[in-house]
User: Fold this.
Amino acid sequence: MRCLSLIGLVLLAACGEPYHAPDSGCGLACRDSSIGDAGTFADAYTSRLPLTQPLGECLPADEAECGCIDGFRRCDTCGWCPTGFACDENAGVCRGLDYNDFYGPSGQTWADSCDVIVTDGSERDGGGIYTPGSSYCHTGKVCAANADARGDVFSSMAGLCYPVSFCQAASAADPPVSTLHCIYSDGTDVMEGPPDTGACPRGDLREPYCGGVCGDDLRCPRAPRAQLSGARTPSDPQTCVGFSETRPFGVCAHEGTCVRSNQQGTAIDVALCELDYGEPCACLVTHPQIDESRWVLGYVVLASVCRDYRLHFPSSTECVDAEWNPLPPP
Assistant:
């Protein structure tokens, strides 16, 4: 997470260049040649890393010895995992890496994770300028957080990410997994899963639709990051947010958090997105949230993407600027 002052944002704005579409002649700054885990592709900011290898393993011997949940060997009942897997103490199962090319050409490994905060972050500094810095899964999977986490900056809902089917199976497991709390990006509970209705629509390839009917086996693209030199380089993968028990798909979002009660911090996060992309960004706000009488949070996305996503879910989403004013028509 970047922490910049408003002066630093002005300096970056003075030297930044706009986002370039693929094959527009902008040179190596448009390409992801430095990111080994993405393979060979044309454009760093639209390519999505496919993640198709199984995260778990459940052999007949595993089922007999320890029990399994949705194809994952349990480690809460046995206490050990086979080679290539590690015990996830939240989920109580042996989980592998989402991407493992340690001995391959890229030498990269990667695991999908989450770190969700549902408060405004004021418990940390009494209401400073920075937003909580919440982050969610990058693939359309859901967050397997610890059941005891409060969801504030001192006890975030953090963990690794799993298919919705795992959380459903874990809720009925015998013995139960007492350490597990599966949540969506807004901190609400995973129960039946997103509605299985309709096909995945085509969106902006830079911040595509994800999760639910759009699947959970493609990682969100990397966002561009503006440098003081004026160049743009690939940043971390974006997070897949917004899908829920009522919305059948989500959208890949830029880093940062919008907080209704913290306009200064929200303005910084939105401005960073605009510097990175060279075009307007906004706050995508979904409803309902856990406690809207106390905190209302949103996700930083391109303004055009926010408007498009809202067309699909007009009754449960809104697009606002950093001062929480509704976005005007394009």
Summary: The first strand starts at residue 68 and ends at 69.
